[in-house]
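in:
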């Protein structure tokens, strides 16, 4: 298995509450990237919304010097890109990073209207199908002519290839019927939001069947939050504190925004807590050491692993046993919790170091020596 951390432009002990939020600037991102790189994580997901947050390509390009080993998983919303535009960005950054780029294709989470995109849920995935057909063809070295319902290109090709062939691996989040079909056709790693292992096992089995229809095999990752402390009791106390210190207004606004989304993953996350604050945090323990209460406080992936090091490691190993080989984790604040997890849980896991193999460090450019030139005949004559 491999462990990735999480990077977004919001951090703090409880970043959904301005009282507990922490400023995130370029220097903070440098410190976070350096920590992830030095503590043994194989990479990080740089998450973003279609129009809000940091630009993942610019952010990562600025951090390469501070993180020379890790891989960079960039959230990409194809609804706001042209295929050839993403080809240029991906090939350039893959070259600059020495082949350390990964792309996480996102279609169903966030507000697209602000980006001028007014496609409904299924239309976004249908456009993504066309997008990835074009993108994968170009990245594989083809000259692509394509005419579809949403996209038409003629003579599209890449003149600046990626280091990773045929292209940097494609990761993908989306659980709806149409999302699963697009993933089965195009994606290398299917990424789920946290759900209990039995539900996750059902998704994995279904996706393996779907991929087999296209003669493909895919692997699996999961996005989970962490509340890690020295003991289970201390971790559940922290979950209770998180719940208690969050205002009713914050919870209501979070649930209002979640209900306004058309992402099926968000609907499934909300079903675990029902939108109601319990008196006791542990009333929302949906599986041993899995807490759905974080979904009351923040939208997106709302399941947290809660416990001491041994309990957290046991749940991760259980996910591994059903086919999950990549874990994208985070705890708040990101910086301190990245150290805590590396100190307390990583030594209990058998981590896969194969991601380090085949990586090419970009070689520094050296100017060629100027050739020796014979003096101009007129200069020789003048000298004589």
């Amino acid at each position: 298995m491999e462990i990735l951390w999480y990077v977004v432009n919001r951090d703090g002990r409880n970043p959904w509450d301005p009282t507990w939020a922490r400023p995130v600037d370029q220097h903070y991102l440098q410190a976070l990237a350096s920590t992830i790189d030095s503590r043994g994580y194989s990479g990080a997901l740089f998450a973003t919304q279609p129009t809000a947050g940091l630009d993942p390509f610019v952010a990562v390009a600025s951090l390469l010097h501070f993180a020379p080993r890790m891989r960079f998983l960039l959230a990409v919303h194809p609804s706001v890109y042209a295929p050839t535009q993403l080809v240029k960005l991906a090939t350039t950054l893959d070259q600059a990073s020495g082949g350390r780029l990964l792309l996480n294709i996102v279609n169903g989470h966030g507000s697209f209207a602000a980006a001028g995109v007014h496609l409904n849920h299924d239309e976004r995935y249908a456009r993504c199908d066309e997008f990835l057909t074009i993108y994968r063809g170009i990245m594989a070295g083809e000259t692509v002519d394509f005419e579809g319902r949403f996209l038409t290109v003629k003579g599209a090709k890449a003149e600046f290839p990626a280091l990773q062939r045929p292209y940097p691996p494609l990761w993908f989040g989306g659980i709806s019927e149409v999302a699963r079909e697009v993933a089965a056709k195009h994606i290398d790693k299917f990424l789920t939001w946290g759900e209990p292992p039995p539900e996750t096992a059902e998704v994995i089995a279904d996706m393996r069947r779907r991929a087999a229809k296209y003669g493909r095999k895919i692997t699996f990752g999961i996005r989970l939050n962490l509340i890690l402390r020295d003991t289970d009791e201390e971790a559940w106390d922290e979950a209770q504190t998180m719940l208690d210190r969050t205002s009713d207004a914050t919870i209501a606004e979070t649930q209002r925004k979640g209900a306004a989304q058309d992402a099926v993953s968000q609907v499934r996350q909300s079903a675990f807590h029902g939108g109601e604050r319990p008196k006791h945090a542990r009333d929302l323990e949906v599986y041993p050491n899995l807490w759905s209460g974080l979904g009351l406080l923040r939208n997106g992936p709302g399941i947290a692993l809660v416990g001491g090091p041994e309990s957290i490691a046991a749940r991760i190993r259980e996910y591994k046993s059903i086919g999950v080989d990549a874990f994208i984790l985070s705890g708040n604040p990101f910086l301190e919790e990245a150290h805590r997890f590396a100190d307390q849980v990583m030594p209990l896991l058998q981590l896969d170091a194969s991601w380090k193999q085949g990586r090419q460090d970009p070689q520094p450019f050296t100017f060629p020596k100027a050739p020796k030139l014979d003096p101009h005949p007129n200069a020789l004559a003048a000298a004589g």
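note: Residues 2-383 form a domain with the TIM Barrel fold (CATH 3.20.20.30).
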